[in-house]
Design brief:
Distance between the termini: 39 Å
Helix content: under 10%
Shape: globular
Largest sheet: 7 strands, mixed
Number of strands: 11
Strand content: over 45%
Number of helices: 0
Oligomer: single chain
Radius of gyration: 13 Å
Structural class: mainly beta
């Protein structure tokens, strides 16, 4: 498995932007696809975005498509989630995850998880 540490969360006003980072260690990061998920209080964890090992393929949840973008820098062993035009309903704990294989929207397909970072969007 690979160890993951997220950073970059915080409090932002609606319409603002944040960039989350996910730093990986322990294995060859470029072997892993990455996913971003979020969980709001009282709700189940939901898919946000995923990116394949090379960064050449991405997929987004409908609720964030056009506002969020996921990228990765394999030389830095880091993945990113750029979040623009944030809305109060984006408030959640955001998690990055990694898996051997292709990009995937199912959280059960990931075997490495970060600790999560809080994102709060005020109206």
């Amino acid at each position: 498995q690979v160890q993951l540490v997220e950073s970059g969360g915080g409090l932002v006003q609606a319409g603002g932007s944040l960039r989350l980072s996910c730093a990986a260690s322990g294995r060859t990061f470029s072997s892993y696809a990455m996913g971003w998920f979020r969980q709001a209080p009282g709700k189940e964890r939901e898919f946000v975005a995923t990116i394949n090992w090379s960064g050449g393929s991405t997929y987004y949840a409908a609720s964030v498509k056009g506002r969020f973008a996921t990228t990765r820098d394999n030389a830095k062993n880091t993945g990113y989630l750029q979040m623009n035009s944030l809305k109060p309903e984006d408030t959640a704990v955001y998690y990055c995850a990694a898996r051997i294989g292709g990009a995937n929207v199912d959280p059960n397909e990931y075997d490495s998880w970060g600790q999560g970072t809080q994102v709060t969007v005020s109206s």
